[in-house]
């Protein structure tokens, strides 16, 4: 179903895997971790167990590299029945430091899209995860100045989005969210009666996936294949300043 875009004044972007690459870093680290534990268990079992520990620990450690690292350490202790060595734990910690030090690689067309939108719409970043890590990535990205506000939350729920809209005095009918995660970026926003555009990334954490029968409840869901299509979707005109609407 084609969404109406004529009333949009504020556009918010997810950060990880919408503005820059992120999941690839986790996938690589997970593969390295699995290689470390292969002397103890088969790959599929290690991967399955780590995934379960990650989800279980979200309520304790939240999203991000630090929580992921603690889940790797817990998984290593459990799957080796305490036989994991101090040097192997150190390898996991070094793996985490490499993740945190990874350069920020913008996805194609991101800077051009932000350049074209800046000044015509109020632009926000709404991202979840570890505060220090997300702030660091934004600083390294070189695109922070395009945004009017940055929101880093522990989780993306309808209540969290509602609080953000209220804080910035944005009516839901004037709001558009753009992101790669149906679970975190799209469905909670649609539940508020606002608009959201899904731009899939090539890799998605299982925890962020949504069942097909759930998606049937959202006939207004719309997907773009690339962030550059956002400009066509909006029919961007540089002569219109939507902040003044």
Computed CA radius of gyration, to the nearest angstrom:
20 Å
Percent of residues in helices: 40-55%
Largest sheet: 6 strands, parallel
Q: What class, by secondary structure content?
A: alpha/beta
- Summed up, the domain count is 2
| CATH C-level category of the largest domain | Alpha Beta
Mean pLDDT comes to 91
The number of strands is 6
**How do the SSEs run, as a string of H and E?**
EHHHHHEHEHEHEHEH
Strand order, sheet with most strands:
3-2-1-4-5-6
Give the termini distance in whole angstroms.
Answer: 26 Å
Uncertain stretches = 237-245
The CATH superfamily label of the largest domain reads HAD superfamily/HAD-like
User: Architecture of the largest domain, CATH level 2?
Assistant: 3-Layer(aba) Sandwich
* CATH-derived topology of the largest domain: Rossmann fold
Shape: elongated
Features:
245 residues, alpha/beta, Rossmann fold, DNA polymerase, domain 1, 2 domains, six-stranded parallel sheet, 10 helices, 6 strands, 46% helix, 11% strand, elongated, HAD_sf, S-2-haloacid_dehalogenase, Putative hydrolase of the HAD superfamily
């Amino acid at each position: 179903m084609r969404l109406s875009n004529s009333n949009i004044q504020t556009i918010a972007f997810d950060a990880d895997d919408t503005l820059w690459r992120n999941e690839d870093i986790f996938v690589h680290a997970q593969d390295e971790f699995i290689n470390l534990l292969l002397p103890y268990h088969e790959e599929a079992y290690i991967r399955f167990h780590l995934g379960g520990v990650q989800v279980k620990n979200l309520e304790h450690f939240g999203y991000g590299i630090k929580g992921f690292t603690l889940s790797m350490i817990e998984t290593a202790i459990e799957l080796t029945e305490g036989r994991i060595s101090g040097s192997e734990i150190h390898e996991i910690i070094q793996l985490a430091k490499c993740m945190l030090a990874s350069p920020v690689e913008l996805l194609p067309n991101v800077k051009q899209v932000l350049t074209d939108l800046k000044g015509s719409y109020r632009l926000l970043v709404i991202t979840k995860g570890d505060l220090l890590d997300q702030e660091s990535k934004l600083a390294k990205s070189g695109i922070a100045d395009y945004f009017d506000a940055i929101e880093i939350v522990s989780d993306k729920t309808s209540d969290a989005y509602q609080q953000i809209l209220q804080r910035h005095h944005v009516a839901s009918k004037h709001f558009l969210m753009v992101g790669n995660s149906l679970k975190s970026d799209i469905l909670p926003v649609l539940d508020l009666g606002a608009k959201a555009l899904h731009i899939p990334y090539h890799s998605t954490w299982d925890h962020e996936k949504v069942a097909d029968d759930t998606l049937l409840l959202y006939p207004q869901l719309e997907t773009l294949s690339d962030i550059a299509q956002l400009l066509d979707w909006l029919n961007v005109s540089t002569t219109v300043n939507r902040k003044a609407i």
